[in-house]
Design the sequence.
């Protein structure tokens, strides 16, 4: 796989909304990951590769939390209800940039209250809460892409 093919693959992944693509060949392995942030590239190239183009090193990966911390976090969030995205699109916290957010951390919501907008195919879809409670955490940045069934909010039931 040459550098041009790698660049085309990166462009495809960024346009398609896929979170991860991994390709392995005899002596070459590439993984392209996105997580609603800029693309991260991890590559493994064999040491003796004469006249081969080498990609710049990817940023150092963030340390992974230990299993104990993961269990504590899961126990802490298990008492909350997760509101998930009903569709793929772009998440917006308010109707327009100059208007206030539909909900903020600490706000109480009731069933049927609009909590955000998801833009899909140039249509703005108001997303209503399916639960009553208090917003504990907003899990998605404003104006970022979301996938189907992606967690958007944590709600503490009332």
Sequence:
């Amino acid at each position: 796989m040459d550098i041009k093919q790698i660049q085309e693959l990166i462009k495809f992944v960024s346009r398609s909304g896929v979170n991860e693509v991994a390709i392995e060949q005899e002596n070459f392995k590439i993984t392209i990951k996105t997580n609603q942030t800029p693309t991260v590239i991890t590559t493994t190239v064999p040491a003796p590769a004469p006249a081969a183009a080498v990609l710049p090193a990817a940023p150092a990966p963030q340390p992974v939390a230990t299993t104990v911390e993961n269990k504590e976090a899961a126990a802490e969030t298990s008492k909350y209800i997760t509101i998930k995205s009903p569709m793929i699109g772009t998440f917006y916290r308010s109707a327009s940039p100059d208007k206030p957010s539909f909900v903020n951390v600490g706000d109480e919501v009731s069933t049927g209250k609009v909590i955000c907008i998801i833009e899909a195919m140039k249509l703005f879809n108001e997303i209503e809460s399916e639960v009553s409670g208090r917003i504990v955490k907003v899990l998605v940045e404003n104006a970022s892409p979301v996938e189907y069934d992606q967690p958007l909010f944590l709600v503490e039931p009332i």
